[in-house]
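Complex record, two chains
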Amino acid sequence: MSDDAEQIRDVVQDEALDEIPPAFTGEHPIVIRGLRNCFGDQVIHDGLDLEVNRGEIIGVVGGSGTGKSVLMRSIIGLQIPSEGSIEVLGRSITDAQDDDDIDIRSRWGVLFQGGALFSTLTVAENVEVPLKEFYPEITDALRHEIARFKVLLSGLPEEATGKFPSELSGGMRKRAGLARALALDPELLFLDEPTAGLDPIGAAAFDSLTRELQETLGLTVFLITHDLDTLYEICDRVAVLADKKVIAVGTIPELLALDHPWIQEYFNGPRGRGAQGAQDRSKAMDNQRAGKA
Amino acid sequence: MREWAEFTSEAGKDGGVKIALTGPLTVASIGVIDRQLRSIPDKVTTVDLSGIAEIDTVGAWTAWRVARDNGAEIVGADEKATRLIDAVKISEGDAAIREAREPLLRRVPEAVGAGIVTFGQGIRGIVGFLGAIVVALGSLIRHPTRFRTKAFVRQVELVGVSALGIIGLMSFLIGIVIAQQGAVQLEQFGASIYTINLTGRLSMRELGPLMTAIMVAGRSGSAFAAQLGTMKLTEEIDAMRTIGVSPMEALVVPRILAAFFMMLLLGFYASIMAIVGGAFLANFALDIPFFTFLTRIQEVVPISDLWVGLVKAPVFGLIIALAGCYQGMQVEGNAEEVGKRTTQAVVQAIFMVIVLDAFFAVFFTKVGWG
């Protein structure tokens, strides 16, 4: 190798962080055992177990106040559980003493409900924040290019890069939040109610975007939702949160076979049947089109 | 030690080079090769991806960018690499990450002009706001049942009662400082007994109301701006309006009235505490007994000094609350704005209080309350 290349390598090594966590090779990116969360006297989770398979989109459903968001916050280390263990990408979150112990943050991306964009930075700068934080050796030129294609990848027009979050609509803010969540090509993606507050067209587009990204990038997606269409369209498995624990995990037909009143009401209520019917119809249409072609 | 992607180049057709990338081609290992590829002098004709161990969107982008910029072809891409390249190559333009700033020569006059215009609009706005408050007060007088007694009492507690400790302590210490410094100077004329006049008149007329105003501006003026600003951001104020509750009546009027009346009481309280502080010091350092000091105060401080303080303090309170509420209601956009407006509320309030104090000083002397 020439001196020039050697020099570049030294510069880069100087600027870069010393170590990055190795890629995860196990079967279950998220393993939760005996989780207990409580606020004061109020117990949110008690003895909650959940295993997420690699490469799947798992949907988490449950009534309001059953602690879906709290569960996500526990998994990503924002909420310290009272009991139980959580392992994410092979690292224990519950045993971590401080933030530095959770060195796998560069391996996951999180989309918060409102997007949670940094309001004083433009969309592109928002996407660049995690890149700067974890990979300071990347040149400005490449970082800007990455920000641009991530913004496009998340379904925003390219002009959106220079806009501030306050200039965007709610749906666009979610997409910008997704672009930031995807900034580091994470293995694990957390989505908190990604389609809430979007119009049906926007919601359907977000669903297919999630599926597309999951297939292209090989992501594991942990998705909290109330949206039955999302569950039917893109989720490989659904975890049902009730009675302070995960009462069932499985595909929707598997869940429907269970005789739990809440699950039955959830999927067989008027809205549940509507979503089911819609999916059957869209499948029928797809088949028809395939048949014609 | 980190693992970096590398490449080897060999001469290809038409005098170009063929580069073969090796190693993991991901965001974590792109640092070295990206800089090398950007400075490669020869024209690249072929990019060979068959030797890479791993690829993600950043790796795919880098390979594709090199190919695009040189008009090269990509060979040896496996199925995943092809899919990723297809996904990222939608980005072609160079949209701005942030709008470019104007040149300095233009920016400075523009900022000055904008500042002056904003200043003018601010004055207009604050006068308009004062008018709106008067209107709201008027309608409250006609419909007294709409007055928010609970909110008013709550603000009275926050602005007045909970400030008693800090304002008392501050005034007490200031009283000590005046008495001490006054005594040192007056002793040179053998007139240390005049320390009492100095302490009494100064704290009643000036320092009591002024220091209290500064403290209340810092404590409550900022709180008003931040509270109303945050409510504006979270659309609480819009929600109120749609329900038919006037934010002026529900939020602004209780705060203004609380600040008005509490400043009246706090200003007087501060004056008294300063005199007590002066008497305390005189007792120990100047051999003037505590109660002699207080009796002398009655004789040397004219009653007009009390009226001066009692007139000034509530006006200061009004200005502080006005600045705080006005700035809070002006918040729009993001969280940064709340901070900016809060700072402005405090700065404006203190500035206006001091300007007005100067006017008051001249005015009261002219009317014979000097």
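Note: Residues 177 and 278 of chain B are 8 Å apart (CA to CA).
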